[in-house]
Amino acid sequence: MELSDLTIGQAGDLLAQGDITSTGLTRAVLDRIAAVEERTKAFVTVTETLAMEQAEAADHRIKAGDARPLTGIPMSLKDNMSTRGVVTTCSSRMLEGFVPTYDATVARRLYGEGAVMVGKGNLDEFAMGSSTENSAFHPTHNPWDLDRAPGGSSGGPAAAVSAGEAVYSLGSDTGGSIRQPAGFCGVVGLKPTYGLVSRYGLIAFASSLDQIGPITRDVADAAIVMTAIAGYDRRDSTSIDYTPPDYTQALGKDVRGLRVGVPREYFVDGMEPGVESAVREAIRVLGDLGAIVEETSLPHTPQALAVYYIIAPSEASANLARYDGVKYGYSAKDASSMWDALEKTRQEGFGPEVKRRIMLGTYALSAGYYDAYYLKAQRVRTLIRQEFDEAFQKFDVLVTPTSPSVAFKLGEKTEDPMSMYLNDIFTQPANIAGVPAISVQGGMVDGLPVGLQFTASHMQEETLLRVSHAYEQATEWHHLRPNI
Ligand code: GLN
To answer: What is the whole-number distance in angstroms between the Cα of residue 129 and the centre of ligand 1?
Structure first.
C-alpha cells in the first residue's frame, strides 16, 4: 500500500513503531498532491513549507514519547476555516488573499495534537452549493471519475481524502456539505450535533445550521478526529458545555438489539434505482448483524428542503452583510461615493450563487414577507425537530441514503439551481434538527460510490460510530480506492 493511502490508525501505528517518520509520510502525501492535483483540483492552497515544518516538529514529539493519535498525520482544512498566517479564501474573490490573524479553534486543537496541515481545500463559494463548481477559482473533480462532481460544498476536502492528497480533512456542513461529498467520493463524513464542535474561526454561512466535522477513510478515523476536535469552547456562544468521551471507545461493539428505523420518505420517486438497491442491501446487512430494522415515517421530510432554503439564505444574507470592502477582503477601487463603493465591492466580489442566496434571504426577511416565509419556516423547523425527537424515542438510529444519486457530471446541474438544491433532500433535515449524522460508503453503482447515512439523536455520536463501524467492518466497500 502507498503511504498516502494509509488511514490515521495505520499511519499512527507505523509512526509509533518507528517504521515511518512524519517527514517521510508528509513528503509522500505532498508528492501525491504534486502527481494528481492537476486532475483533482482539490486545493485552493497547498502549504508545503508549513507541512514540512510541522512534520519535523511531530517527529521530535514522537521521539520524545509525547505523541497523540493525530501527531504527524497530514490533513487538510476546508478553506472556510481561519488559519493564522495562511490565506483563507472561502473560495471567493471577496476573500482572495485574505490572511487571518488567528486560528479557528479546530485548527488550534489539531495543531495542539501535532497535526500536519498540507493545505486548504476547495469549496463552493462561502460553502453554498453541492458540487464545488461555485468556487470562484476552479471546480474540483471527483477522483472516481474526473468528469464528475465531487459533491459540495466540501468537495475539495473530500476529494483530497479519496485521492490520497490528505489522510483526513475537516469539512463544514450546513445542509449536507460534509456528508454528500463524502458519499460522492467514497469516504466517511460526520456532521456532529450542533454545538459539539466549536465554530470559532469558521467563516459563517448559516449560523444556526453550520457545524464542523471530520472527513476520513474509515469510521475509526472519524472517531479519532472527533475526540480531538469536540468539546466546549468559550469563544463560541453556541458551544455545548460538555466534556466529550473518547469516541474510539464506541468502536468494535456489536449492534445486536439496536433499533434501526427506515423512514419511508427517504425513498423518493426519481431517486437512482442503484442507490435504492444499495441502501436496501445495507439494511439487510444490518439485520444480519442483529439490529432490529423497522420501517417508520418522518412525515414533514418533504417540507424540510423548503425550510432549509429559506432559513439558510436568510442567515447568510445577514452574515454576509459584513463584506463591505472597508475592514477586510476585496474592495472596489474606482468608486465615486461610499454607497457606490459598497455596491461595486459586493457586485464584483461575490459570485452568482452567493448573490442569489443574499437576494433570497433578504426577500424572506423583509417587512411584509417575514411572517409568510421566515417565521413560517421557523415554525415548520420546530415540527421537523419534534418529529426527529419522536422517532428517537422508538429508534437508536435512522438509516437512509445520503443523496438520491451518485456523483453527477460536472456542468449537469449548474444551469438549474433547483435541481442542485434537490441534491440536499436527505442531508439538510439533520441540520434543521441539529442532530448528528454520518455518511459511510454503502456500495458502488457503475463504478461510483453510494453514500449510506445514519442519523441519531442529539449527542449520540457514539451510537452513530458504533453502528457505522459495525456496518463497515461487515462490508468491503471502505477498502476501495479510486484509480487515479
Ligand atoms: N448544498 C447545500 C447548500 O447549498 C448545503 C451546503 C452546506 O452544507 N454548506 O446550501
So the answer is: 5
481 exposed, middle or buried (CB, 10 Å; 0-12, 13-18, 19+)? middle
Host domain of residue 144:
3-252+459-479
Query: 372-402 pLDDT, tens per residue?
Result: 999 999 999 999 999 999 999 999 999 999 9
Q: Is residue 12 part of a domain?
A: yes
Scan for cell 469558521, then name that residue: 202
CATH code of the domain containing 246: 3.90.1300.10
The domain tally of the chain equals 1
As given in the structure block, the three cell numbers for residue 97 are: 488573499
Counting Cβ atoms within 10 Å, is residue 437 exposed (0-12), middle (13-18) or buried (19+)? buried
Q: Which of 130, 215, 405 has most ligand 1 atoms within 8 Å of CB, for mutation?
A: 130
The residue written with cell numbers 436527505 in the block is 426
Query: Is residue 176 within 6 Å of ligand 1 at its C-beta?
Result: yes
Please report whether residue 383 resides in a domain.
no
Residue 191 in contact with residue 229, Cβ under 8 Å? Answer: no
Check if the beta carbon of residue 114 is closer than 8 Å to that of residue 68. Answer: yes
Evaluate whether residue 285 is within a structural domain. no
pLDDT reported for residue 178: 98
